[in-house]
Amino acid sequence: MEELVQISLSGGEDSPPAFQWDDWYASVGGRSIHVPEVDALRERIQNEQYPRFDGPVASTRHEFSSPSEAAAAIKEKAAEFGADIVGVCEIEPSDIYRGKVVTEKFAIAVGQRMKWKEFQVVPSRESAIECMRIYHSLGETVVRLAEYIRSLGHPCKVEHPIGDSNILHLPIGLKAGFGELGRHGSIIHPKLGPLFRMGSVITNLEMAIDHPIDAGIAKFCDNCRACRIYCPADAIPDERDPNGGKDHIGYDRYVVDTGKCFPYFAKYNYCSICLPVCVYNHKEWAKDFEGTETKLFPEVRMLPAPEPVDLNREKRHYYNKVKR
Ligand code: SF4
Ligand code: SF4
After folding, report:
1. Smallest Cα–Cα separation from 21: which of 52, 42, 41?
2. Longest Cα separation, the chain
3. CA–CA dist 123, 32 (Å, integer)
4. Which ligand is nearest to the CA of 236?
5. SS (H, E, C) 248-279
6. Exposed e or buried b for every residue in 212-250, given b needs 16+ CB within 10 A?
7. Element (H, E) at 199
């Protein structure tokens, strides 16, 4: 059996801290969204999936004939477990949250499509349930993929889509070829658009890696402002920020004002307006997938935006303050 070289990567001062959900909710007076279906799904994620993030590794290791064969086998299995898109990339320190340590070389990025028909009215009870349903469904996919990899004798860990993870899903998804970073701060996939979520499994199993893509999507955002116009909290910027870091193509990033977005998100069913209004949604495909008649554009509820909030700089992700 090939001897493994133990690696150790850590997120440095340039990395953002992991998202401080409790502190953010405390800043707006606590959780105020109470949808029984959402609460039940969140409980199932915590009770049924969290305990399976780690697990026993088979004592006999299956060796693949090549990294390409390993990547193909893992991708096929991920699709069998429910993945719509899968990609592999190498983890770098800039992909790791500040202060977290990762001993795995590869991330297997897994994406699952959200149901367009649940975003016909945003924000809404239906869209809130869909936001949590996808975290549960995708969580099950990455947990099962991790269990499969361990059954082949290769250790690995789950990086759940709901957070509390070690790695940043966005740069991992971009490097794994999932799409380009949109003005609204989410990845836009050329076929799925922005209505998908991602999680990962990290491992030292040697696999062939994928590469970032440039399909002209990020460039298109420079001439489109749909998400900017419909954001009720005024949190999406007009311009790219030269101090906001670069995306995978090398463009300055658009930096969303989290201090404006979060209060709206937390008060009104996880908002989500910027995703279904994005012009990169292929709604006719979504209709075909589901067999359900849908509108071509959602009904957007532009409700009064609460006051912005800010965490201190050590705790918050980097963000610009837009039009404060
Ligand atoms: S989730 Fe809502 S408030 Fe936040 S950026 Fe998107 S549209 Fe704006
Ligand atoms: S709505 Fe337009 S500007 Fe916003 S992310 Fe989508 S394509 Fe880019």
Report:
1. 42
2. 62
3. 14
4. 1
5. CCCCEECCCCHHHHHHHHHHCCCCCCCCCCCC
6. bbeeebbeebeeeebbbebbbbbbbbeebeeebeebbee
7. strand 196-203
Q: Is 85 helix (H, G, I), strand (E, B) or coil?
A: strand
Report, in this order, helix, strand and coil percent for the chain, each rounded to 5.
35, 15, 50
Find out whether 170 and 227 touch, Cβ atoms under 8 Å: no
What is the C-alpha separation between 137 and 127, in angstroms, rounded?
15
Element (H, E) at 196: strand 196-203
pLDDT tens-digit readout, 215-228: 999 999 999 999 99
Alpha carbons 62 and 154: distance in angstroms, whole number: 8
Per-residue model confidence as pLDDT tens digits over 245-270: 899 989 999 999 999 999 999 999 99
Paired tokens of 201: 């499994």
- Residue whose Cα lies nearest atom 8 of ligand 1: it is 231
Q: Relative to the alpha carbon of 131, which ligand is closest?
A: 1
**Both tokens assigned to 13:** 């001062």
pLDDT score recorded for residue 19: 83
Which residue out of 271, 301, 322 has the highest number of ligand 1 atoms within 8 Å of its CB and is therefore the one to mutate? 271
Q: Which amino acid is at 299?
A: E
Q: Enumerate residues 6+ apart whose C-beta is below 8 A from 248.
A: 171, 174, 175, 180, 181, 212
